[in-house]
């Protein structure tokens, strides 16, 4: 079961390379749900001193991918085929929390929604993505190796 595989991976302390690069963390997963976070700092800023929209996009893509991943079977992977994000308020520093829920899971695609909030619980961004189920050798390697 993919959820148990994800939990074992999380317990191992391994991080995805993109998480190390940007500073994101996977905090929690359960069937069709995930929560990830980022401690925002000046290294994430655009020229106006706020978190760059691409960083928020990365955080939302991570959390939505993790939520959708809980619906996969062994030997399956996923690809984000569309991502839309609305930026609602600027964020500068502190913990940003992204929560995602799979709203629909079909045979080959699914739809996932995400909210990103700041430490005060204020909504920073809303995102949605369409994910496609992918069956290939890379998914099987990840499933076998756990990374």
Explain what this protein looks like in three dimensions.
This protein has 147 residues and is an alpha+beta fold. It has one domain: Roll (Thiol Ester Dehydrase, Chain A). It contains four helices and six strands; from the N terminus they run H-H-E-E-H-E-E-E-E-H. A six-stranded antiparallel sheet has the order 1-2-4-5-6-3. The model has no long low-confidence stretch (mean pLDDT 91).
- Please tally the helical runs, counting DSSP H or I stretches of 4 or more residues: 4
| Overall tally of structural domains | 1
Query: What integer is the average pLDDT?
Result: 91
- Poorly predicted sequence stretches spanning 5 or more consecutive residues: none
Strand order of the largest sheet: 1-2-4-5-6-3
Examine the coordinates and then state which fold CATH places here, giving the name of the CATH topology. Thiol Ester Dehydrase, Chain A
Strand content: 35-45%
CATH H level: which superfamily? Answer: Hotdog Thioesterase
- Overall 3D shape: globular
Summarize the structure.
The protein is an alpha+beta fold.
How are the secondary structure elements laid out?
Blueprint lengths: L1 H11 L4 H6 L1 E7 L2 E8 L12 H17 L6 E12 L6 E12 L3 E9 L5 E13 L1 H9 L2
Antiparallel strand pairs: 1-2, 2-4, 3-6, 4-5, 5-6
Question: What characteristics describe this protein?
Answer:
147 residues; alpha+beta; Thiol Ester Dehydrase, Chain A; 4 helices; 6 strands; 29% helix
């Amino acid at each position: 079961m993919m959820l148990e595989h994800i939990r074992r991976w999380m317990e191992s302390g391994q991080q995805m390379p993109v998480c190390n690069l940007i500073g994101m963390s996977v905090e929690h997963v359960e069937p069709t749900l995930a929560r990830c976070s980022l401690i925002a700092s000046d290294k994430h800023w655009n020229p106006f001193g706020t978190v760059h929209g691409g960083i928020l996009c990365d955080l939302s893509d991570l959390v939505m991918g993790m939520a959708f991943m809980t619906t996969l079977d062994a030997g399956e992977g996923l690809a984000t085929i569309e991502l839309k994000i609305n930026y609602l308020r600027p964020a500068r520093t502190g913990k940003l929390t992204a929560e995602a829920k799979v709203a629909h899971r079909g045979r080959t695609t699914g739809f996932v929604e995400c909210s990103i909030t700041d430490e005060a619980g204020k909504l920073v961004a809303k995102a949605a993505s369409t994910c496609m189920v992918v069956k290939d050798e890379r998914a099987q390697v990840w499933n076998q190796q756990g990374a």
